[in-house]
Design goal:
The structure is a single chain. It is built from eleven helices and 21 strands. It is elongated. Among the domains are: 1-45, Monooxygenase (Up-down Bundle), CATH 1.20.1280; 47-180, Leucine-rich repeat, LRR (right-handed beta-alpha superhelix) (Alpha-Beta Horseshoe); 361-452, no CATH class. It is an alpha/beta fold. The longest helix is centred in the last third of the chain and has 13 residues, at 405-417. Strand 17 and strand 18 form a beta hairpin. It has helices at residues 8-15, 21-27, 32-39, 53-62, 81-84, 102-111, 184-192, 262-265, 366-369, 405-417, 436-443; strands spanning 47-50, 68-73, 93-99, 121-125, 151-155, 172-176, 199-204, 218-219, 225-230, 241-242, 248-253, 281-287, 290-296, 301-306, 334-339, 359-364, 376-377, 384-385, 393-398, 424-429, 448-451. The strands form three sheets. The chain has a 17-stranded mixed sheet. A two-stranded parallel sheet has the order 8-10.
């Protein structure tokens, strides 16, 4: 057989792509050569599922001293395994996932009391079960020694109150739990245990702060990414975190207040997220079934969005952006306004702050959007104001209906007469072609008109 002439290392490599563990066990019974090759390759046996007793012991033995990736599944776990067998394998475990309900998780964690010096990833997952809640981490869990722990995840399991869990080198935290509410003091105390956190994703029910005493903010100097969703109450976690290196923030709004704006979500102090207060590019989206605002940077972004299934539909005149938004747009060079819904366009975007904007894309019905760039004269003082005075390129993108070329030509004429002409117009999307006369009328006011 051609398979018998394969080099041992190639045969072992092929078996890395096996369908499941039974294929590996079966492969050892093909012939003496295959068995010898597979048993002398410890890396093939490092994915250990603590469940079936015979298979578990086989994998632990054949993996020799290689780093292990261990999963413990309560549904298939031999109830006597942890009390009857050696647990020293935890000392060479790189990742550990415990899939069990709350009580079983506590029981399993109580038996894992030996140090785990090489453990980098730890997951508690009870998402298959409706029973969630607090999990008291045992005092001797991992012998209080897991210095390499970098990633920690809780799904439908809450680790509060936390005791003796080594988090001093933790960089990545995932925590999703819909059951009991966590207090602000408990949550902040937990995060404070991991000063080196770089990436946090939380979806929790957090109690609002009450009483005259405001909890003290914590500083996470390494934090670069934060995903936050509070599934009940108006509590704002981000108001209590100072992260000078944060450049990627996602906020999931589920509060039942249709007038929520960025000014009510973001902390008012720039020392919280200084990298987020002066975006270089902005994408503003408004739709009747939800709202979102995306601030994009060379190294990160801010995303705010509302869940239409939970939050009520916001009124058409309500917008994320407002004059109270604690963000400066003086560095913003590119702006995309996506207004492809049937509602009127946004009326309170702080246009006066976009003094250095060079590229503007308008998405939607142009007859409702072109007024954004149209010069206007104050009725009282007679002063002429030109929105986006540095604008060089305009990109109208039509989603439906015809394109009002004559309106665009008039707006461009007014801007040119005011000394703020646009150099390039690039029209894209679904539109009805313009006549030759309309085309040349536009060419009077722009250097290039591109029709895709």
């Amino acid at each position: 057989m051609a398979a018998n002439r394969l080099p041992p290392e190639l045969l072992a490599k092929i078996l890395e792509f096996r369908h499941d563990d039974r294929d590996l066990i079966s492969a050892t019974h093909v012939c003496v050569r295959w068995r010898s090759t597979l048993l002398s390759t410890p890396l093939l046996w490092t994915e250990v599922a603590i469940g079936d007793l015979d298979r578990t012991l086989t994998y632990l033995e054949r993996s020799k001293n290689a780093l292990l990736h261990v999963s413990v599944e309560e549904s298939s776990l031999d109830s006597g395994y942890f009390s009857a067998h050696d647990m020293s394998w935890i000392g060479r475990t790189d990742s550990l996932c415990i899939y069990a309900d709350r009580e079983q998780t506590k029981s399993i964690a109580g038996r894992l009391c030996l140090p785990a010096p090489l453990l980098q990833s730890l997951t508690f997952d009870a998402s298959f079960d409706d029973v969630g809640g607090y999990v008291q981490i045992p005092h001797k869990f991992l012998g209080r020694q897991a210095p390499s722990l970098r990633k920690l995840a809780f799904f439908s399991v809450s680790p509060i109150p936390v005791v003796n869990l080594p988090l001093q080198n933790l960089t990545n935290l995932r925590w999703t739990d819909q059951s009991p509410m966590v207090s602000i003091a408990e949550l902040l105390a937990f995060l404070a245990l991991a000063p080196l956190l770089e990436d946090i994703a939380l979806a929790l029910r957090v109690e609002s702060t009450t009483g005259p005493e405001r909890p003290r903010a914590i500083t996470l100097s390494k934090l670069r990414k934060l995903v936050w969703a509070n599934d009940e109450g108006p509590f704002r976690l981000i108001s209590f975190i100072i992260a000078p290196e944060l450049n990627d923030l996602s906020i999931h709004v589920t509060a039942d207040n249709p007038h929520t704006s960025l000014s009510t979500l973001l902390p008012p102090y720039r020392d919280h997220f200084p990298l987020l207060v002066e975006p270089t590019a902005l994408r503003y989206v408004y739709q009747s079934y939800g709202r979102s605002c995306h601030f994009t940077y060379p190294s990160g972004c801010l995303v705010v969005y509302e869940d239409p299934e939970i939050s009520p539909i916001a009124p058409p005149t309500d917008n994320w952006l407002s004059s109270n938004t604690p963000i400066s747009f003086w560095r913003t060079k590119e702006l995309i306004v996506d207004w492809s819904d049937d509602h009127p366009p946004p009326g309170d975007i702080p246009i006066e702050q976009f003094k250095n904007l060079e590229n503007l894309e308008l998405v939607g019905e142009m007859d409702r959007l072109l007024h954004i760039i149209q010069p206007n004269r104050n009725a009282t003082s007679g002063t002429l104001a030109v929105p986006f005075p540095s604008l060089l390129e305009l990109r109208p993108t039509i989603r439906k209906g015809g394109f009002p070329f004559e309106v665009l030509a008039e707006v461009l004429r007014e801007r040119k007469e005011a000394g703020h002409g646009v150099e390039t117009v690039h029209v894209t999307g679904e539109y009805q072609g313009c006549s030759t006369e309309e085309y040349w009328e536009l060419m009077k006011f722009v250097n290039v008109l591109m029709l895709d």
